[in-house]
């Protein structure tokens, strides 16, 4: 009587052992990629500075009608490529409608000239996807009004409209009160002139297009999907989770695992044989 009760339990247990060994094998490689992204998130979180201080005392805005970014750029007659980008990404409408609001932080826009765009490697802009064009455009827009003088004390990297993530979109600016240099890691450039400034909207001419890794990378590589965990067997008891953890740790050490399975099998066979003999 005892034997007939025991043997199904033993069979299940053996099956379970085999399965946890297998799932340990599968889940071990998944651990490495799943750790990498979380590590880099931490780094990004640490490196992102406190939000840049708002643009200081409210400048009395003399202008009765809000600025129109496209009209301002068009008047200067050398920003047609950038105007095209603002329109195709609808950032022009977004900026203009934000500027119409009573309280807004304002905008600072680094406008690359047409010759800056023609200095890019041939076909660069045409090869960009819509997402890349949007990222490129937003990378030139800061969601606060900054005077030339304020670039001396601004906290780097600046938060551009492109980010969330100043690691992929780093923009570091340094000024001495009259001159403003900036770097993205890929591009060093300098403000050539102030195109427009009214206390809410500042437009600065730059002679180079600001590129960053986050723009050039077409799509951020998605983290590797975790392999589906086999769910052939429902755990028999509370030991299940700790067992599978143990085998995952074993197998990540490398060579231990391949020897496990045969041992388990032979133990199982031995037990079965023993049971047969008993019966
Ligand atoms: C900007 O860069 C130029 C050339 O590298 C350098 O001579 C100048 O001192 C820099 N200005 C500031 C404010 O850092
Ligand atoms: C800022 O740097 C530029 C270039 O190095 C220089 O011509 C200018 O006089 C400097 N301005 C101040 C306020 O130091
Ligand atoms: C930008 O300037 C830094 C420091 O002045 C220099 O190390 C770097 O090579 C420059 N990068 C480019 C792309 O010119």
Automatic annotation (TrEMBL):
Subcellular localization: Cell membrane
Protein's job: May be a cell surface adhesion protein.
Predominant subcellular localization, coarse grouping: membrane
Membrane topology recorded in Swiss-Prot or TrEMBL: Lipid-anchor; GPI-anchor
PANTHER family: FASCICLIN-LIKE ARABINOGALACTAN PROTEIN (PTHR32077), FASCICLIN-LIKE ARABINOGALACTAN PROTEIN 11 (PTHR32077:SF65)
Location of region: Disordered: 27-62, 221-255
Name of the protein in its database record: FAS1 domain-containing protein
Keyword tags: Cell membrane, Glycoprotein, GPI-anchor, Lipoprotein, Membrane, Signal
Leader peptide range in chain numbering: 1-24
Domain FAS1: 66-210
Polar residues bias (residue ranges): 235-254
Pfam families: Fasciclin
Entry's family note: Belongs to the fasciclin-like AGP family.
Bias (Low complexity) ranges: 27-48
């Amino acid at each position: 009587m005892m034997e007939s009760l025991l043997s199904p339990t033993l069979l299940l247990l053996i099956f379970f052992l085999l399965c946890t060994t297998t799932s340990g094998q599968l889940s071990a490689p998944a651990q490495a990629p799943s750790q990498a992204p979380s590590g880099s998130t931490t780094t990004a979180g640490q490196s992102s500075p406190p939000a840049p201080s708002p643009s200081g005392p409210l400048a009395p805005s003399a202008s009765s009608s809000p600025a129109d970014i496209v009209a301002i750029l068009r008047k200067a007659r050398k920003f047609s490529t950038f105007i095209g980008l603002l329109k195709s990404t609808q950032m022009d409408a977004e900026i203009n409608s934000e500027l119409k609001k009573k309280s807004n932080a304002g905008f600072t826009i680094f406008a690359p000239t047409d010759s800056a765009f023609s200095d890019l490697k041939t076909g660069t802009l045409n090869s960009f996807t819509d997402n890349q064009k949007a990222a490129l455009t937003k990378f030139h827009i800061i969601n606060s009004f900054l005077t030339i003088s304020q670039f001396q004390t601004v906290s780097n990297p600046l938060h551009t409209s492109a980010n969330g993530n100043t690691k992929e979109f780093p923009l570091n600016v340094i000024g001495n009160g009259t001159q403003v240099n900036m770097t993205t890691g890929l591009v060093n450039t300098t403000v050539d002139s102030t195109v427009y400034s009214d206390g809410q909207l500042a437009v600065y001419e730059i002679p180079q297009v600001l590129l960053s890794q986050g723009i050039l990378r077409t799509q951020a590589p998605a983290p590797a999907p975790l392999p589906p965990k086999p769910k052939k067997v429902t755990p028999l008891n509370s030991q299940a989770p700790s067992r599978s953890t143990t085998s995952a740790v074993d197998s990540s050490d490398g060579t231990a695992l391949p020897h496990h399975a045969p041992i388990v099998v032979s133990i199982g066979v031995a037990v079965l044989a023993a049971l047969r003999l008993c019966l």
